[in-house]
Design goal:
Elements: H1 15-62, E1 65-68, E2 71-74, H2 78-84, E3 92-98, E4 103-106, H3 113-116, E5 124-129, E6 135-143, E7 152-159, H4 161-196, H5 198-210, H6 225-279, H7 287-314, E8 326-329, H8 330-339, H9 342-347, E9 351-356, E10 362-368, H10 370-387, E11 391-399, E12 402-409, H11 416-421, H12 440-450, E13 454-457, E14 465-472, E15 474-477
Parallel strand pairs: 9-11
Antiparallel strand pairs: 1-2, 3-4, 3-7, 5-6, 6-7, 8-10, 10-15, 11-12, 12-14, 13-14
Length: about 500
């Protein structure tokens, strides 16, 4: 494993490390628990076995006891007794004595007062330290063939060092193979996980191979099932990104094409003025040429303003002060914006009627920019006054908590092609008027979408054009709410 010494590398570990860490930790924990459990069970089995051997030694000594008229005696010699409890691993100590304290055979000296006070007939196991400080494991056996016979205690003890030695040997036999297996199992984990992650490396190579200009979808045929959802979302993102790039390219091309006409006109008029000036420096500027230059420059400035507005509403991260989000009254904003177009409508010899059918007791609050919503209303009324019939109407309605704004005129009906392309950027109808950039309705649609609503052209029979805006608002009743001047 290629583990870097830099500790910061583990703050954001690779996927391989993230998979290896829990697997290795789980294996180590299981190995430790299994080895510990085996060691404890082996120690318990070892103690049980050695205790049984101690009890057998005590029974062998007890078999040499004899009673004559109730008095106990040890029939075998001390050498025979030593051979009965002999152990090659550690020296055993024993004692055969009566309840009154008379020793029959042995060299074991233990303070077993509590043990000898018991009347158990089964072997009694206990641990105690010898006078020399050695930790002993002992067994006591009470022998009394009949109530008239003298009670004899047979005790055999051995050092616990033998038991610890055996348990250490068992522990070594358990831990050593487990440790050696770790040198095989952990690399197998590593290479198995690394092989399982190979599809992710191939997928990463495919993404890198795409480059900046290639936004085609990634293949999903050889992708594992766990990664297919990620690849599907990535392909969806690539498609949206491709559509956005294509839209930006079209926008730049259309903007350059739209700006070409006013710029060419400005260059032509300026060239005429320079030729006139060179021919006769004392001759004043031609008023007609200046008027044409002002008209072309105004059209160019309007185009630039529309382009900036389009770019501004297209950028959802814009921090322009004019589009800062706030909570505002949508009805008041619409009515105030419509009131500003009464004078332009009269100047164009057209009528503008504004009718509000929203109850004054309802407060339609909208989160967004009132400036942008006002720009939407201005765009729709401007188009209706410029290109529509002599009568223009703005109506406000509501459906539950949705505010509905309709702007209509009684001009000639639109053909199918016009209705289909009306909201496209830079598209201009066959109205024969030179002004306009074809961006006003596109800007309005983007602003409405940014406010969470929809803008569409209503399919109505008869004359005129009707645009409908639907804005989802937070509608709530208000108490004693004063009516704005523009309402009613």
């Amino acid at each position: 494993m290629n583990l870097r010494l830099n500790p910061l590398g583990w703050i954001n570990p690779s996927l391989l490390k993230q998979l290896m860490l829990p697997v290795v930790a789980l294996w180590v924990a299981c190995a430790v628990l299994a080895a510990g459990a085996a060691y404890l069970l082996a120690g318990r089995s070892t103690n049980t076995s050695f205790d049984r051997l101690l009890a057998d030694d005590a029974q062998a000594l007890a078999a040499q006891l004899r009673w004559n008229n109730g008095k106990a005696s040890f029939a075998a010699s001390k050498e025979t007794a030593d051979s009965l409890v002999f152990d090659s691993l550690s020296l055993s100590h024993y004692s055969v004595h009566t309840a009154s304290g008379r020793k029959l055979v042995g060299d074991l000296h233990l303070d077993a007062t509590e043990i000898e006070a018991r009347t158990d007939t089964q072997p009694i196991f206990f641990s105690q330290a010898s006078p020399h400080g050695t930790h002993l494991r002992a067994v006591a056996l009470r022998i009394q063939p009949s109530p008239s016979d003298e009670t004899v205690w047979v005790m055999v003890a051995e050092s616990k060092q033998k038991r610890r030695q055996v348990k250490e040997e068992i522990a070594t036999a358990i831990f050593l193979p487990a440790a050696l297996a770790g040198f095989i199992i952990i690399p197998l984990f590593y290479y198995s996980i690394q092989a399982a992650l190979s599809p992710t490396r191939r997928l990463s190579a495919l993404v890198v191979a795409h480059g900046d200009a290639d936004l085609s979808p990634l293949p999903v045929e050889e992708v594992p099932e766990e990664l297919r959802e990620l690849v599907a979302h990535t392909n969806s993102l690539l498609q949206r990104l491709q559509a956005s790039v294509d839209e930006q390219r079209r926008f730049i091309a259309d903007a350059a094409h739209q700006l070409q006409t006013p710029m060419a006109g400005i260059r032509l008029l300026v060239g005429d003025m320079r030729r006139i000036q060179r021919a006769d420096p004392s001759q004043p500027m031609d008023a007609q040429v200046l008027a044409q230059l002002d008209e072309v420059a105004t059209r160019g400035a309007r185009m630039v303003k529309q382009l900036l507005a389009y770019a501004r509403v297209s950028d959802s991260t814009s921090e322009n002060a004019a589009v800062q989000s706030e909570c505002f009254d949508a009805v008041d904003t619409v009515l105030e914006s419509a009131a500003r177009w009464q004078a332009p409508a009269q100047a164009a010899s057209k009528s503008l009627v504004v009718e509000n059918h929203v109850p004054a007791a309802l407060d339609f609050q909208l989160q967004g920019s009132p400036v942008l919503l006002g720009e939407v209303i201005s765009n729709l009324l401007d188009n209706a006054i410029r290109y529509g019939g002599p009568h223009v109407r703005l109506d406000l309605h509501h459906r539950a908590s949705t505010l509905i704004v309709r702007v209509r005129d009684d001009g000639p009906p639109l053909d199918a092609a016009t209705r289909e392309n009306l909201l496209l950027p830079f598209w201009r109808g066959n109205h024969g008027l030179p002004e306009g950039s074809g961006l006003g309705l596109s800007i309005a649609q983007r602003i409405v979408q940014r406010l969470g609503g929809t803008l569409g052209l209503m399919a109505e029979s008869g004359l005129g054009t009707c645009f409908e805006i639907q804005l989802p608002c937070a509608a709530a009743p208000v108490q004693a709410r004063p009516l704005p001047a523009a309402r009613g």
